[in-house]
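In the current project phase, we have settled on a layout for protein records. A sample record is reproduced below.
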Amino acid sequence: MFLGLFFLVPSSRKWGQVCSHGYPGSPRYSFCRAYIACSGRTPIYHLYAILADDTPPVGVAAYAAAVIAGADPIKTGFLGFKFDLAAFLLPFMFVYNPSLLLIDTTWYKAILIAATSLFGMYCFAAVIQRWLFTRLKIWEQVVLLAIAVSMVWPNVVSDIIGLAVFCLIYFSQRARKAREDQLNISYIKA
């Protein structure tokens, strides 16, 4: 069951992108629903159907936004895809944490799962932007990505380890930012 769900979510994204390019909202929704609903995990099909509009190669919404902004359509499409990467992690959270949908849970467990999920999305956003307080190093990106993925599964041990490692990166980034600010101040005075 675990591996089946693990492969269903990415294949659902591909199905949503490939089979629904160029279709309006309702047929796109129907195509994705027909494929994904058989798994019993239906909250993800609409998200992937909508993401098909924003990601290359078709990227209708991104190209329309580029025309309005007077920007390069290809760069806008890839930037939109970069921002959509966070939306790729979101369905995994709902598939592996049905408690996020408030199914068979208590209020304190729902708050804990929501907090860890938001923390995981924050780490993932830092990886996508390559920035926390200052530019992330490669090893920091890899560690933050591992933390973000570990927050998907409801496990207290991985949550505690992820939070502890994030604190190390946080304090490392703060110290590096303070050094950079000190160098900037000394450069301005000279």
Remarks:
- Residues 101-190 form one domain.
